[in-house]
Input
Amino acid sequence: MKDFISLTDYSTANLKELLRIASKLKSMYRVGMQDWCIPGKSMAMIFEKPSLRTRVSFSVAMADLGGHVIYIRPEDIGGLGEREPMKDTARVLSRYAHVIVARTFEHQKVVDLARHSSVPVINALTDWLHPCQAMADVLTIKENFDKLDGLRVVYIGDGNNVARSLAFACAKFGMKLTVASPAGYELDEETIKQANSVAKGSVTQVSDAPKGVADAQVIYTDTWVSMGQEQQQEQRVKDFIAFRVNAELLKEAPDGVKIMHCLPAHRGMEITDEVFESKNSLILDQAENRLHFQRALLKKLLGPQEQL
Output
């Protein structure tokens, strides 16, 4: 495992190992222990999109393991891939830092960074995928259920980068994902086909939210308007109004169904405040687990292999 770009690049065994490391590190840090496994290592972070959880969790994770962070704004380098070729940026940063973390609009930019970099490149979100989020989600689900195999997850909302990464995660870990979206916002057929090629019947698509949650053990939602879609907000709100995760929708789901959201949440839109703050909400656990998974990923990519 040199880079971390898409969950489809790795075996289930690889991904389970990352979860095992994350759980171990979480237990250690909870009792005040430290794993100073990458002292002196540096991480270059290039973010085209604003971030709270991703930037802070990666920064804290790197510091917790003994490394340090250089944060790079697009304007600092004249735009990623604009002032100079991507291959030059990748090769130069490879000589300065031990790992590159990139959060971009275009997925190809992260792919190109990884192709030309001699150090690990981590996908911290693109318009196509959000693999670190999906792994933190799986860690959260694993902590709350006896087993992952056959577990029923329903994603309510836009078939976006989060839904796509969740589909790949469910396929890798044996979970069953139903994506419930309004017409025109479904998860793309190629992603569904790819996920189902990993494990048959892993992902299905429906256009009715109540039908989707009928046998759900986990209900997952995300914003209706992602970064870069602000001009579509009025139309999207109209199109998604029947897909709001509220008390009425939960009446159609089994008792005790768990609630997840990758944040930031727009309360009153894709999820109500009542549901967000309910006893079955795992939302803040998800956010915390971003830190624990990021620690595990950095340890795996940069730390001594004999300590894994």
